[in-house]
Write a structure and sequence with these properties.
The chain is of the alpha/beta class and 333 residues long. Helices cover 30% and strands 16% of the residues. The chain contains ten helices and eleven strands. Helix 3 runs antiparallel to helix 10.
C-alpha cells in the first residue's frame, strides 16, 4: 500500500485512484509522519462528515462509492441525542418497561439495509386470519411499508384505537419479532406486524383484508447515522421500495378517497416516488391543502408531518440537519 500521505494528497486533489476500499475519513485521519498529530481538518468544529460519498475511481460512472465513516464527536453526540429524543417522543408507550422482560428484544443489532431481490425474500408472506389478528377486521386499514422498529405505528394504534387497524410490513425479521412482542405486551388488538417483502406480498395481503384500505405510508429516510442504502446508482434503482408494480397494486386496492403518504430526506428518492404517483393523474391527486390551510411549499412538498408523530428515522435526520421531503396523494378514481 502507498504511503498514507501520498494517498491523502491524491484523494484531496481529486486524482483518479481506485482499488482500495478506504473511505475519506480513514485517509484523512492518518498522520503524515509517525510523530505528527492528526490533521486539523478532523477538528470537530471545522470538519463534518455528513451525507458524503467518496467515489474512489474519480468519476461518476465506474468504481465503488464508499460511505464515509462518521469520525467526529458531533456525529456521536447527535446519535446519543436522537436516542433521548426518541424516548421522549414515544414516552407514553412505556416500552422501556418491557426491555427487562426479554433482554434480546431491547436494543437490536441489525443490518440497516437488505437486498429485496434476494431469493430469501422472494416467497410471499402467508396470509393471516384477519379475524384472529384484529378485534374488528372490518375497520379501515393503514399499511406502513417498511415499518422499521414499529414505534411509529404502535403510537398511532395506541392513540387512535377505534378508528382503523394498522399493518406494518418489514423485511428485517428481528424488528418484526420485537414489534410483535411489544404489541402483545401492550395488549393492542388493532395492529399487526409482518415479516414481508412488500414488493412480493403487498397485493395478496391487502386484497385479502375484509375492510377497506384507506392509508398507505412509505417513509424512506436515509442518513449517515443509520446508513440504509437509497440505491443511488441507476442499475440499483430496482432495489428501491417503490416500484411500478407496487404503485399499481396501491392504485388497485386503495379505496376511493384513500391517502398515500410518502417521505424521504433524500431528494432523488423523494422525486422518484413523487414522479411515480404524478404519472397517474387520473388515479392520484396531489394534496396541497390539509384542512382549510395550504400545507405545501412552492414545490409541493408538505411542510410539516401530518401524522401527529415523527418516525425514529425522521428524528435522526432532523437532528442531523437534513430536510424531509413529503408528499400526500388522494385516490380520486
Amino acid at each position: 500500500m502507498k504511503h498514507p500521505e501520498a494517498i491523502a494528497s491524491r484523494v484531496m486533489l481529486g486524482v483518479r485512484w481506485s482499488g482500495c476500499g478506504l473511505c475519506a475519513a480513514h485517509v484523512l485521519r492518518w498522520p503524515t509522519t509517525a510523530t505528527s498529530s492528526p490533521s486539523p481538518l478532523l477538528d470537530p468544529t471545522t470538519f463534518h462528515l455528513r451525507r458524503l460519498f467518496l467515489n474512489l475511481s474519480g468519476d461518476s460512472s465506474g468504481g465503488r462509492s464508499w460511505p464515509c465513516c462518521p469520525v467526529t464527536n458531533e456525529v456521536s453526540s447527535v446519535a446519543a441525542r436522537s436516542t433521548e429524543v426518541i424516548e421522549m417522543e414515544y414516552a407514553d408507550l412505556n416500552l422501556k418497561d418491557f426491555y427487562g422482560v426479554n433482554p434480546q428484544l431491547g436494543h437490536l443489532r441489525i443490518r440497516q439495509h437488505v437486498n429485496p431481490l434476494s431469493s430469501s425474500f422472494s416467497a410471499p408472506a402467508e396470509i393471516p386470519d384477519w379475524k384472529e389478528v384484529f378485534r374488528d377486521a372490518t375497520l379501515p386499514l393503514m399499511v406502513d411499508i417498511g415499518s422499521g422498529s414499529g414505534r411509529f405505528l404502535l403510537w398511532l394504534a395506541k392513540n387512535c384505537p377505534e378508528t382503523r387497524n394498522y399493518l406494518g410490513l418489514e423485511i428485517r425479521q428481528k424488528l418484526v419479532q420485537r414489534s410483535q412482542f411489544w404489541v402483545k405486551e401492550l395488549r393492542l388488538k388493532n395492529i399487526h406486524f409482518m415479516f414481508a417483502n412488500a414488493m412480493v406480498s403487498f397485493e395478496s395481503l391487502v386484497a385479502s383484508y375484509p375492510g377497506p384500505l384507506t392509508l398507505v405510508s412509505i417513509l424512506v429516510v436515509n442518513l449517515i447515522l443509520q446508513c440504509p442504502d437509497p440505491h443511488f446508482k441507476k442499475k440499483h434503482h430496482k432495489r428501491r421500495v417503490l416500484q411500478e408494480p407496487l404503485v399499481n397494486s396501491i392504485a388497485e386496492n386503495l379505496s376511493r378517497g384513500g391517502t398515500v403518504f410518502v417521505q424521504s430526506d433524500v431528494l432523488e428518492v423523494a422525486l422518484d416516488m413523487r414522479n411515480q404517483f404524478d404519472d397517474r393523474p387520473d388515479i392520484f391527486s396531489h394534496v396541497n391543502v390539509i384542512g382549510d390551510k395550504p400545507s405545501c411549499d412552492s414545490q409541493g412538498w408538505v411542510l410539516h408531518n401530518p401524522m401527529g408523530i415523527r418516525t425514529e428515522r425522521e428524528i435522526h435526520a432532523k437532528l442531523e440537519g437534513a430536510r424531509i421531503y413529503r408528499r400526500i396523494y388522494e385516490k380520486v378514481k
